[in-house]
Each structure stands twice: as C-alpha cells, then as structure tokens.
Amino acid sequence: MDFDIGIQDVALAVQQELWNKVAFGAMDLANEIKDVTLENDSFREFSKYISELNLLIQALNNCKIEATTCSQGTRAALETLNSQLRNACNLIKDYKCWSRLRLLLNSHSVLSRMQDIAKEIAETLSSLQLANLDVALNVKSKTDQIINNLRSMEFRSAAATETIVSDIEKSMTQNGRNREHAIKLLQKIAETTGATANASLVRNELALLKQEKEEMEAQKKQAEALQLSQLIQLLYSTELVTTPREDEIRMYPIDSFMCPLCDKMMTDPVAIACGHSFERNAIQEHFDKGQSTCPTCKQELPTLELTANLSVRSSIEQWKQRDTELKFQTAVSGITSDDHSILNEALEDMQVLMEMPRHRAKVAGLIPNLVEVLKDTRLNTKAALKCLHYLSNNSDENKEAIVEAGAIHCIVKQFYKGEAEPDAVGILLELSVRETLAEKIGNAKDCIPLLVSLLQNNNSDVSQKAQKVLQNLSSNTDFVVKMAEAGQFKPFVARFNQGPRETRCSMAAAVIKMQINGNSISDLENKQFIHNLVQMLSSSTPACVSACLQSIKKLSAYPNMVKQFLEDPATIPSLCLISFVRPEPQWRQEATKILTSLVKSSQLYDFQTYQGLKELESQHNVSLVLQIAATSDPQTKVHFLQLLVELSYKSETARNLVRSDEDAVARLFTSLNGEQPEVRQVAMRLIYCISEGHPAGVPLPPSPAKEFAIKTLAAILTSSPEIQERSTAAGIISQLPTDDIMVDEILHKSEALKAIHEVICAMDDELSRFKTPNDLSEAESLLENALAALLRYTEPTKPELQRQVGKLELYPSLVRVLSRGSSLAKERTAMALTHLSQSTTLSLSFANATIMPKHPNNNSLLPLLQLSRLFTNMSNWCCSASARDQSLCPVHGGACSSRHTFCLVKADAVRPLLQTLSETQSGAAEAALMALDTLLMDHRTLPHAAAAIVEGQGMAAILQVLEKGSSSAKDKALDIFQKILNHTQITDPLSQRSERILIQLLQDDTLKKKTALVLRQMNLIPDQSSYF
Hints:
This protein has 56 helices and three strands.
C-alpha cells in the first residue's frame, strides 16, 4: 500500500471540507429563515439571496483547479464566510425563541444586525479569488449579482411594527395601569405576530418572559431584566390572567412609591385622612380645586390635613439607593465588557453616577478601561471623558493613573481631529496643577500648539480652560517658547521679564526662529520686555549679545515694535556703542543694520520726540559714521553709508551735516569710480539724498574733481547695466546746480541727453515687460528721473541745451508718457512741454509782432529781445516732423510749421494734457495747466487756442481741477478758465456745473476775489459786490 500522500492532496481535502461547510451553512440558514413570522418580507428576500448563495457555493465547489487549491486567500475567505453564516443562523434561532413582546421591542436592533451580516457576507464573497478559478462567465456574473443584492438590501421594520413598539414603550413608562389600553395593545401585538389575543397567549408570553428575565438576571444584565419585568407587568395589566401574590411583591416593588395623581415617584409623600398617600403638591392641587374626596377610594374626607409619610419616604430613599447601587454595579461590570452596546450603555450610566463623590473612589481601577475607550470612535468617548474628568478631580493617585494609561496622548489626538470637548481640556487642567504632570503635558507632541489654537474656540468653556492650562505650564521656559512659536506671546513676555539673564538669552535666541504675525506682535509691545532685551546688548557673553542683536533685528521689522524700541532711551545708544566702538565686525554690521531699519521706519516728527534719534543726528555721530565709512572695508562701508542715506532722508540736520563735510562729499564722488558696485550704488543714493530739494543742488567737489564727477555721472547714466544706478545718476544730474555754466558745458558735450532720450523713448513702450513689482518700480523710477534730468535741457534760459533737445524729435515719446506714465512722470513731462512751448510762444510773439508801443522802454525789452534772437536762430527743432506736415495749425496757422518751433497742438499734446488734469491729487494736474497756459500767452492766437482746448473737452477737465485740485492748481485753473471764457460760450450743462463750483470757491479766502471776477464776467454777481 502506498502511504506517500502529497501535501497538495491534504490541502485539497481541507479546502474541500471548507466548501462543504459553507454549503451546509447556507442551506441551514435558508431553512431557519423560512418560518420567521415578524418582518417576514425582509427575511424572505434575504432567504432568497442565501438560497442563491447555496447554489453558487455548490457551483464553485465543482471547480477543481490545482493552481488555487492551496490559496491562502480562498481558504481564509471560506472560513470567514462559514463563521458569518453560522452567526446569522444562531441570531435567527434566538430571535424565533423570544417572546412576542421582546421580539417586537428588539426587532429594530435584530434587523440592523442582520443587515450588517448581509453586507459582511457580500464583502467576504467579493474577496474570493474568482479570477484564478476556471469558472464560467455566467457563474462569475451570478456571483456579482448576489454580492450586489446583499450589499443593497435593507432590513426595515414595517410602519405597523414601529407604531406598536412605540405604544409598548409608552405603556411601560406608564407602568401599564390602563387595562383597556393594555387589551387593545395585546390585540395589535397578536395581529402583527399572527396569534390570537386571549388568556392562553398571555400565559405563554408570561412564561417565556419570566424565563428570559431569569436568564438576564443570571447574566447580570440588569437593564434587560428590568425591561422584561415591565413587559410582564404590562401583560398582567390586561387582567386576562390573575397576578400571583409573589409576583405582585416581586414584580411591582415601586408601585406604592408612585403618586396616583401625577403618576410619578413621590419625593415628598404625605398621607390623607383615609390612609392613602400622594405627592404633596399633587394632592394639595387636588384639594385646591374644591375636591374633598380621596382620589383613590373616593371616600369623603373628614379633614384635608396632610401628614408627612416618613415611612414611605424612607422606603423610597432606600429603594433609590439600592437601585443606584445596582446601576453602579451594572455600569462597573459593563465598562469591562467587549460588547460595544453594553459598554456604551454602561458609560452613559457611569457619567451620571460619577456625579456622586462616593462612587469615584470605587472605580479608580477602571481608569485604563476608560482611557482605552478614547481610542475607539465607535464608543461613547464623551462619557468616558466626563468620567475621567471626575476621577482626575478626585485624587492625585487618579491623576497619576490617568497619565500612566496614556490619556494625554488620546486627548491630543482628539484635538487634532477638531474634537475639543470641555471635559478633555478639563482633564488637562486638573493634571497640570501638579508640576510633574504639567511637564508631561507640555512635552506631549503638539499639545501646546493645539492648546493655543483652542484659545479661539467658540465654546467659552473650552477656551477658558485652555487658557488656564497654558498658565499652569508657563513656569517652564521651554513651554512658553512653544506657546510663542504657536502665536501666544503673553506667557513668553512674562517669563522673559521674570527670568534671569541666562533664561533671557535662550529666549532671545528662540525669537530669531519664530514666525511672528501682525496679530501676535501686539503681545510683544511691552516696555519692560523691550528694555530687558536692549539691556542684554551690554552683556559680557558673546552668545547673549549675538542673540539679542538678531532678535532686535527681527522685531524691528514691525512698525509698532520700532516705536517701542525708539521709546526706550537705551536702544540707540546701546546700538551705537556696538556699531561705532566694538571690534567684532559681524556685531557692528548687525547693529548698523538695526539702526538703519529704525531710522527708515521712523517718522520725521520722531526726531523731535525721541532722544535717541536726536543723538544719532548729532554732528558728533554723523561725523563718526562718515569717518568709519571712509576707513572701513567695502562691506562695512556699505552698511554705514546706508545708515547715512536713511538718516539724511529723515533728518534735515543730518543731511546738512553731510553736505557741509567737503572731504566726505569728495570721497563719495570718488567712490563712483570704484570697483565695488554696492559701494558705488549706496554712495550715489547718499549724494542724491543730500541734493534732492536743496536750493544749491548737488554739492559738487572743486575742480578738477568737479568735471570728473559730472562726466562719471553721465557715463553711469549712459552705460551702466543696472537700472537703479542709471536712475540714481539721472536723479543726481537733475539736481546739479542750475546756474553753473561749467555743468552745462560738460553736459552739452556728454552723451547724457542721448541716454535720457533712449530711456524716455524705450521705457514708455517697455514698462509692460517687467514682471515683478520691484522691477516695474525701478523702471518707473528711471523714467521719472530721466524726465527730471531732461528738464535741465528744456529750460528756456539754456538755449544751447534746448537746441540739443530739438535735434532728437523727442516729443512723440513725451506725449505717450502723458498717457501711460506714473503721476510723477506725467508731471515732469508736462513741465518739459511747458518749457518747450513757452520758448516757442515767446519766439513767435517777437517774430510776428506788428504793433509796438509808441514809447517803448528799451531797457525792459532788452532781455526779451535777446531771447528772441536765440529762439530765432534755433534749427532742427524737436517738432521738425511736423514741419513736413503741410497742414496748418488751428491755433498758430503756418507760423508753427517752421523747424524752429514746437507746438503743443501740432504735437497732439493738448488732449493728453487735458486728460492729465484728472490727477488732481498729484502735481501732474498743475503742471499740465502750466503747459496749457502757454497756448494762451499770445493774445492774437488766444481765441483759436481757447477753441482748441474747448474742443478737447477742456472745460470739464478744468472744472474738475477747480472742484478737487490743490489750492495752487485751482488758482491756475481759474486763470485759464477766465481766458477761455472771454472767447468761448459755455454750454448749458457745463454752465450750471461751473456756477456751482465757482460759488463754492467763494468760500476760499485765497481764491474768492479771483473767483468773484470770473462770476462777474459770467454776469452772476454785480460789479459792486462786496467780494471786490
């Protein structure tokens, strides 16, 4: 005989046995379902699917493929399926054995469980590796159909069943005292379950219920036992069977505790004359209605006196205590149960029972179980938290046990999920009272940031408790640093102010790495904090000084903090000491950067308010900074020059001190030719700063350095690859002394004007190609400064330079700037056009003058005659393109067609200038008015010029200036308005608007006389008005 059986054969036999078990399990389940009487529609549908499953199992069992006989996945799926079928079968067997009343009351939970089992069977079927089985496609299709059916089927209670269940529950709460109602309810139950409502049914149901009640009591399922007791009582109330005496005593122990009037357990029982007892308020209300008989025995009472029934009260209290203890024991037992429903019910009861301190000491051993509940979202975690909260409040031993069981981690995890229960934060609050436990809370990962986030919680109880927890953690430096990193700076500031120098040093170092936003910076605006931080600059510990410098540098980036630092009198002196005296280069640079930042963020009036800024702008300190800049390495020089730049922008005193130091100025210009681009750029910025707006302009060094400096600036403007350098060079050129002939000669010979021309012609077309705001700002600044430099060339008193402009045909680009440039660019463009148009107007006036005074004053006319000769000799004027246009100018006729003239009308500049008038909040509007006014200077062409302005919608634009412009702009607008008014009739809508605006201007003391003249011209006020 051959005993050599292969392993594969054994596996095949095992798997074959599993297939058979599953098939038999499906068959048994289908048979059990057939005679279910309640909710049989749902069960009938389920039976159909299980029968189909049985056939499917048999079909799959016939598949003999060696490749799958040993599949671990298939074997596991079969074992699970067998277990599920067996569980379903057992559940239905139990279901069928129950009494009808119990079956009805629990039908919903049973149906819910059956639906879960159906879905579990479907999931198990879907895990079978059918793809590896050699089965027909129709079998696979049938499998998918069964899976879908089981997944989608619903076990539902019929509406009639739901109604009956509701009636049963209501009758149970009323203790079943209404016989008529109990009889009707019994008939409905019998009808629903297919039985007859008679004494036999009641007796059978009572026997089953009593047996079930004993089983529940044996299993210590007190809640279920109580429910069954109430059902038994409900059946007895039908009076179809006699209630045994022992059952009356045992089944209805609280009957004598219930008030017959209010049907509630008595709290203040009183006896009346006949001996029956009632709740005091209920019987008193009965008597107050005029009744004098006993509600129970209907006996006429000789007296309405109420006597406290102390015996009943004592019995009730004893019963309540026993009932509470029973519930407590049941809850204690339930908390250790593996059944989720039992566990949740126990938690629900326990959270109420824990309100009584005597119970808290008895459940300390359940702390690990309660903490475990927090890890399972299917359980009543809220009740578990409340229980733990009570326990944490009970003793220090409980606190230790709660932490040991891992409650902190579970609570933090809940915070992560956005589940911040007041009891959860309350537990942390109780634990944080003890220093050792507070340390564990603070060290729990992300606990402090989450607590900080809870400060903004909508639940005030949560936010207040979180605040108290953080307060308890605030004695630890590491913890307050974590709080600050999360945006809560108040504890950080308090700890910093109270801590020793070593603690402050570490905290200052922590500030460097923190993310600080505008909302949290206000907590750092603390004078003591700022003072303590500044005092650390004098520390003898290098690490302390370094951390303090970097911390101050970070904080000074916020405007509100700048004010705090400036208010502390020690800030600037301490920084100056490091910046000017200390030998450490890195510290000096950091201190200088901070000083620069503080000055840059300050306001002009701050130099009159804060002593530190006054000292910084002193002659001693400005000279010292200049000296250090002159003798330092390039990197340090850059930082000190940047300080001087910001100081000069904000302080006229500092600006004049730098200007007056001739040696320093000479060194600045020498730096322009250095090989250090950063030094050159900041030196140029300082030169521009001390020159801008000063009557004397740029403080040039004496010759020959003077000539060299101007040529260098022109070279930078012409050839520098850096936009910022070229912009600054153009700005400095615009500030060169206006009355220096040598400057004009050097500029005339240089390529500066050509470079300006290229900037203007290119930049007004190419501004759109700059992608970042910084690049765009630099490009706009270059254009604005180039236009400022151009103004030197367009000055009517500088004919040689103006002649250079005439050769470039620059006006089309200038007109485009009026439409597309910034407000400042438009202002400077309008000023340049004013110069050009003014020169031409003077030239045309003298060239075409036909009427001379009889007795001219030769001396007074001499300067004008000299200008006339200069303008007449101009050639290749910038309007030469128009010279080729043979059409006549509507204002000047053919007079402005010459190559020697520039005309705003022929240059198409009138309409852009009028559009510029809308920028009433800048100087552009006033500059545009000055340009337009040049058209109105010659009285012979004035009517045509006025018509040209009106045709370009000029009156509306001028009225806008009169309404919203500056005082000086309004003054110029009034002049132009009056000139136009002399030669043009204002249309009706504009006439009404102009009247309203002019009348409003009468309130302006500086303009009212001129306004009154215009109104008189419009016949709106008389000649003898008080305004004259």
